[in-house]
Design goal:
Layout: H1 11-14, H2 20-36, E1 41-45, H3 55-74, E2 81-85, H4 115-124, H5 131-141, H6 145-158, H7 162-168, H8 177-189, H9 191-202, E3 207-208, H10 211-219, E4 223-225, E5 230-233, H11 236-247
Parallel strand pairs: 1-2
Antiparallel strand pairs: 3-5, 4-5
Length: 249
């Protein structure tokens, strides 16, 4: 941050091992960086969920950011700092959602693509899709941004048709197999989520789940949440693949 602001580094002056890294970092921002700048700065951290690979660091680091956010509400100096955290919602799978370190600020979700957005992305890939093909793709992956992009990447770079991709989509040899295997691993790791999703897959109408289970399955992208805690599979790809994986049909 100091280098980006083109300021002189004064870490040695503010860092104190006796009070620890969190307090030292806070003092460095408060008494040096924020005190010397005139305009607000944005601290943007992408893929912040990867920090949970080091739990001993994650708790302290996110608690520090949470405290900084709290300071912005009361201390004028801290209002110069804007924090943007970009994360995968799958991080919620293992969390107590009532004690999430991300319970701060304004949450902005990446919504499923609309047909118009799918058309725009296809245009950028220089792919021509018929209206019927656009509808087929929407039914298959439900506008899921990552899956849509994966589809267009394979069509463009591997010179395959959408029809051929759809035929193997819900199998272990299709282009989405790694993505599906990752979800399957998560569900097998958390039996309560697997049981809840099995209930959703068996039903022909939306199913009401416990709030925490509905939230976590939605965070994984496996279901869409309707009124209250009523959910249903978010797309045909998930319905077909996981029904076969769990029930062998």
């Amino acid at each position: 941050v100091t280098r980006k602001l083109q300021l002189e580094s004064k870490l040695n002056e503010y860092w104190d091992e006796d009070i620890g890294s969190i307090e030292s970092c806070t003092l460095y921002f408060q008494e040096y960086l924020l005190s010397i700048i005139d305009n607000p700065i944005v601290l943007a951290i992408d893929e912040v969920d990867y920090i949970f690979q080091s739990p001993e660091i994650a708790n302290d680091f996110l608690s520090m950011l949470h405290s900084w956010y709290g300071e912005t509400k009361e201390v004028k100096l801290w209002q110069k700092l804007r924090i943007v955290l970009v994360k995968s919602t799958e991080v919620y799978i293992a969390m107590n959602i009532n004690k999430s370190p991300f319970n701060m600020g304004i949450a902005i979700d990446l919504s499923p693509f609309t047909l118009e957005q799918i058309q725009e992305l296809a245009h950028r890939y220089q792919i021509e899709l018929l209206p019927q093909e656009q509808n087929q793709l929407m039914r298959l992956v439900g506008g899921h941004p990552y899956l849509i992009n994966t589809t267009f990447y394979h069509i463009k770079c591997h010179h395959v048709s959408l029809e051929s991709l759809i035929k193997t989509a819900a199998t272990d040899t299709g282009i989405y197999s790694n993505h599906l295997h990752q979800h399957l691993q998560h569900l097998q790791q958390y039996p309560e989520l697997k049981t809840a999703f099995e209930q959703v897959l068996r039903a022909i109408t939306p199913v009401e789940l416990q709030q925490a289970l509905a939230f976590k399955l939605k965070s994984m992208g496996l279901v869409v949440q309707l009124e209250g805690n009523l959910v249903m599979p978010s797309c045909d790809l998930y319905r077909r693949y996981f029904y076969n994986a769990f029930f062998g049909i």
